Amino acid sequence: MVCRMFRIETEVDKERRDLLHARLRDTNTAASPVLAALRGTPGERQVPLHVWAMDERSGELAGGLVGHTWTSWLHVTYLWVAGRHRGAGLGGALLAQAERTARTDRACTAVRLETWDFQAPEFYRKHGYDVVCVIPDYPPGITEYTLVKRLG
């Protein structure tokens, strides 16, 4: 019999979150031979990959990329360039450095990322990314794109 009582919480419960993650990982591992084969290997871990660019004159952050690698993929979470440095190739340089590190140091073969319609879908297409998913109205009035690139 299933208990019909629910407790809805909106605060973060790290212990319960970690328990849920572990149980989901175990369920997924049992259901997928691919994920089962990853268990206990270095590819199982998400490893942060951050690239920073500092303004040489001011010492302030000029731009950066935050992501992580997992299995053979780089996932770019954030890429940002300060307004005064935009249009000079810094975003492309940050992206290229992350891709190079992922490919050469971490054996990644692909990259994925998400961006909104007002951000940079054309920037990523220009750098060899393909749109694989479009979610209109996420959030309302905005379209989200998921893009991927195979690393050579």
Topology overview:
Blueprint lengths: L13 H18 L1 H6 L8 E8 L6 E10 L2 E9 L8 H17 L3 E7 L4 H6 L3 E6 L8 E7 L2
Parallel strand pairs: 3-4
Antiparallel strand pairs: 1-2, 2-3, 4-6, 5-6
Rg measurement, Å: 19 Å
How many strand units?
A: 6
Oligomerization: single chain
Head-to-tail CA distance between termini: 53 Å
Count of separate DSSP helical elements: 4
- Gross morphology is globular
Q: Which H/E pattern describes the elements?
A: HHEEEHEHEE
Please mark out the parts with pLDDT under 50 across 5 or more consecutive residues, or reply none. Answer: none
Name the average pLDDT. Answer: 94
User: Biggest β-sheet, characterized?
Assistant: 6 strands, mixed
Given the helix and strand composition, which structural class is it? alpha+beta
Question: What percentage of the residues does DSSP assign to strands (E)?
Answer: 25-35%
| Helix percentage range | 25-40%
Question: How would you write the strand order of the largest sheet?
Answer: 1-2-3-4-6-5
Notes on the structure:
The chain has 152 residues and is α+β, with helices and mostly antiparallel strands. It has four helices and six strands; from the N terminus they run ααβββαβαββ. It has helices at 14-31, 33-38, 90-106, 121-126; strands spanning 47-54, 61-70, 73-81, 110-116, 130-135, 144-150. Strands 1-2-3-4-6-5 form a six-stranded mixed sheet. Strand 3, helix 3 and strand 4 (110-116) form a beta-alpha-beta unit.
